[in-house]
Amino acid sequence: GWARAVRGLLLDVSGVLYDSGADGGVPIAGSVEAVRRIKASGLKLRFCTNETQATRENFVKKLRGMGFDICVSEVTAPAPAACHILKERGLRPHLLVHDDLVPEFAEVDKTNPNCVVLGDAAENFTYANLNEAFRVLIGMEKPVLISLGRGRYYKETDGLKLDVGAYMKALEYACDVQAEVVGKPSERFFESALAEMGVPAEQAIMIGDDIVNDVGGAQRCGMRALQVRTGKYRPSDENHPDVKPDAYVNNLAEAVDIILQQL
Amino acid sequence: GWARAVRGLLLDVSGVLYDSGADGGVPIAGSVEAVRRIKASGLKLRFCTNETQATRENFVKKLRGMGFDICVSEVTAPAPAACHILKERGLRPHLLVHDDLVPEFAEVDKTNPNCVVLGDAAENFTYANLNEAFRVLIGMEKPVLISLGRGRYYKETDGLKLDVGAYMKALEYACDVQAEVVGKPSERFFESALAEMGVPAEQAIMIGDDIVNDVGGAQRCGMRALQVRTGKYRPSDENHPDVKPDAYVNNLAEAVDIILQQL
User: Could you tell me what reaction this enzyme catalyses (chains A, B) (predicted)?
Assistant: First the structure.
């Protein structure tokens, strides 16, 4: 049923292709081969990530180092999507992002800021930097806050870390504004990925480990969506009150097996 | 009308008695004398503050230095109220508060924490400390977050600063919990102040500069409440959609003039 009439696949990256770890990450068993098989099949493919701790160049470099057949032009990520919005609306950002993401905004005018762009800034989330971003926002007649994702937290080898969504909420509350979220699960973000692939939502399947941001977001755009039982998947996801994937698969390799059988 | 049948006064401190500044603060004209006149009149008096950057001892010391007749036993503040709740419920806090507030929790068992107490930690709001407080919370079966206030921001001589409420929202979102707020505008906090004064709500008047936390909070407890046109007062407060003070006064001295005339 769920694998019928598919022309394109959207893959989440962290937790689907690889698990992040102290050394940068290790591929999930079968995923390197699964990406090759998708490409060989003639299906369209797009990598759809909320990664904001590195430029796409460095992100792709890391994945190629693990053996994945991937290039920059195949990646949909929040920072380039934000750049597009900034240009479209004549916005000049004050950036509160990870140092390694800054080059993505190289072409953007950042003088005399009229908005704040917030990413997972990690060590850059200092008291001083948060107050500074806040002052830029509260100084505007109508504050514009663009957030690269709305994640609550994530796991690193040295423990759980607050994600960008928590800091977004802090600034939203202090300034009494609502952030515009770029990245999954925003509809616009999935639609860009579909457009870049040239496949309509009805013929695309999203494969991800995040029940809300990957599965729920893609389904709201009219796509089918699978949850893999790797990465941040937890058994309790299968009882999620709002989101029900079109199917569960043990991992990407199994999803690709089933999809390719139906072609 | 509004000054009839009064037996006790609750005074906010910052913005009513003094304005904070680089040198610690300066008394608002007429306020030192106004406090003396209240005490001479036989009215009951209670200082009701959300201050969490100093122990009551140091807070009172600063005010006495400005000439105010005030002592520790007359002050209702969030930290001692929190200590009371902690003891009552057998809670052992992980503290994310200002260094100068820590002594207020000297008597509290802090081993093996089963809740987080959040204050305006200022420079202690580091990335590492926020992640640590988050991990303590997310590690509990049912996270308990106690927040010493819910302010959005405040002004210091070197600019606006995010207040405890912003960080409360970040942790609330990340852990999917609702904080218990100690301090104004919590009903329980005002009720403690009334009990300590021994005056029922109907015979008490709150005087503050904060339309929501002072005026709105006190009125919800059945008190009358005045807004002074000092401190953080802004003309736009007079069009507040939800809260309407029983009266506006230019400053504490004017409020005391009117109240004492009616006695």
Answer: diphosphate + H2O = 2 phosphate + H(+)
